[in-house]
Amino acid sequence: MLARVRATAGRVAAVAGAVVLTVGLGNDAVTLPGAAAAVAAAGVGLAVNPKVWRPASVRWTAISLYAAPHAGCAVLLVGERLAPDAGVSLLVQAAAVALWTGATWILRPGLTARQFVDEVLAQELAEAQKVEEAPVEPVAPTYDSPQAAWWGQRFAIEGGVAPGTVLLEHRQVSEQCLALVIGAQKRGQPVPDISKPGLSAELDLPEELIDIGPVPGRGAGVRLLVLGQRPVAEAEAGPGDSDAEVWAQIAATAMPGVELIEANTYEMPKELT
């Protein structure tokens, strides 16, 4: 209903403007009242069309489009008053009046301005919805060392052998032995169960060369992982020089509380050394 009223008002305004311009061809007395009426009609039209003011990004474009016929009418009225009364001049003025009337009637700038604003608002709403619906890109994890990156990107990934874990410390005990201290990603949570067979398959390392256990003096939020052949004494065993004592010396700095149970010889994969 409101749209029909606005359409009717626009048609009436176009006819009134055409009448005023036609009368102004031969009567200068309508110039100032006609121009004032055109400006007033533009102001009233903009006041009753708040939609034109809404999108700040194209506000002045919409206002200019809406007020274009009113401004054109005022300019033509002033031009009719200033132009000479010669025959050719009157024909040119009449053609300008006809052009203004036809363009205003066909193009309907007021309706065009409202449609333009509707399209802009719909586009802005669609873009806002896209932003809201866009998936949040996960923040790429950072690692303190290449070894931590190796663990995080190969084992701690979703679906990996040890998801939800991080490498806290590592120690190369020997060329064939690597000690890792694994922690839970979330503080206060225990380290998830790490599959020894999974590690064995991933590293192509026999299960008997993989030890997973607690870190002495620490809680369940950390675990000690020993990979590979533990070191053995190269010299003949003597007083204070047995395998167990040698291992105890190494464990005192690398892995406190870990005891040597058995010694074997195994070639370590290059990626672990």
Mind explaining what this structure looks like?
The chain has 273 residues and is of the alpha+beta class. The chain has helices spanning 2-24, 31-47, 59-82, 87-107, 109-133, 146-154, 196-203, 243-253, and strands spanning 165-174, 177-184, 210-213, 222-228. Strands 1-2-4-3 form a four-stranded antiparallel β-sheet, covered by helices on one side. Helix 1 runs antiparallel to helix 4, helix 2 (31-47) runs antiparallel to helix 3 and helix 3 (59-82) packs antiparallel against helix 4.
Write the layout of secondary structure elements.
Layout: H1 2-24, H2 31-47, H3 59-82, H4 87-107, H5 109-133, H6 146-154, E1 165-174, E2 177-184, H7 196-203, E3 210-213, E4 222-228, H8 243-253
Antiparallel strand pairs: 1-2, 2-4, 3-4
Helix pairs in contact: 1-2, 1-3, 1-4, 2-3, 3-4, 3-5
Strand content: 5-15%
Order of strands across the widest beta sheet?
Answer: 1-2-4-3
Name the poorly predicted regions: 233-243
Largest sheet: 4 strands, antiparallel
| SSE class | alpha+beta
Shape: rod-shaped
- Average of pLDDT: 79
Distance between the termini: 82 Å
Q: What is the number of helical segments per DSSP (H or I, 4+ residues)?
A: 8
Radius of gyration: 43 Å
Order of helices and strands: HHHHHHEEHEEH
In total, the number of strands is 4
> What percent of the residues sit in helical stretches (DSSP H or I)?
40-55%
